[in-house]
Amino acid sequence: MEKENVIVTHELTKRFGDFTAVDNVSFAVQKGEIFGFIGANGAGKTTAMRMLCGLSLPSSGTATVAGFDVYKQNEQIKKHIGYMSQKFSLYEDLTIRENIRFYAGIYGLRDERIREKTDLLLQQLHMKGAERTLVRALPLGWKQKLAFSIAIVHDPAIVFLDEPTGGVDPITRREFWSLIYEAAGRGITIFVTTHYMDEAEYCNRVSIMVDGRIDALDSPANLMQQYASASMDGVFLQLARKAKRSGD
């Protein structure tokens, strides 16, 4: 049975004056899919994500997220998604437990459910006994995993991850991706931007952005076969060179 699409865009565009940051992008993302939005810094990934999160209105084109229109129903979109950025969005002067309870309340969970979710997350993250630790005292990897778990504490339809593994070591990155797989297994759609090409191979499908456009979209295996490359790094380099030649 074909899975439903939870994100659909058609010729989605964002301009800032004469500069086009996102240029007529069209794609669909299925429920439970791990969808990678790949590209160099400045390629337009974050701008596209902000439109899909209901934080920025498009200049033209159409998009729906969790069934809601990005122009008219952006507040509804915000209730049905989770979001995590490279900065993690945690309150440094609150404890682990306080951060979980605060964000669970923001997401609209009732008191009893907040208590259940807090205890569950502390167990899953192996943070029992450390729940009164201030977030500022945590190692970077702990902060990262805590921020992701908080972003999905309300079981959203989609979680948007904007460069979530920046600045962490390879081992912690692998541990973080195991959390992503667990969430996708529960039916949460993962939309992740990254400039780490090796992470693209963890995704079900990847969209490669170059200068605001989608230059390729397929599974990592198919893209590597299409571009006769042993890695996603090689695929990206070929696309970047092609874009440079066409711009010269």
Automatic annotation (TrEMBL):
Keywords: ATP-binding, Nucleotide-binding. The keyword Lipoprotein does not apply. Residues 7-236 form the ABC transporter domain. CDD domains: ABC_DR_subfamily_A. GO terms for molecular function: ATP binding. It comes from the Bacteria. Gene3D superfamilies: P-loop containing nucleotide triphosphate hydrolases. InterPro entries: AAA+_ATPase (IPR003593), ABC_transporter-like_ATP-bd (IPR003439), P-loop_NTPase (IPR027417). This is ABC transporter ATP-binding protein. It comes from Mucilaginibacter rigui.
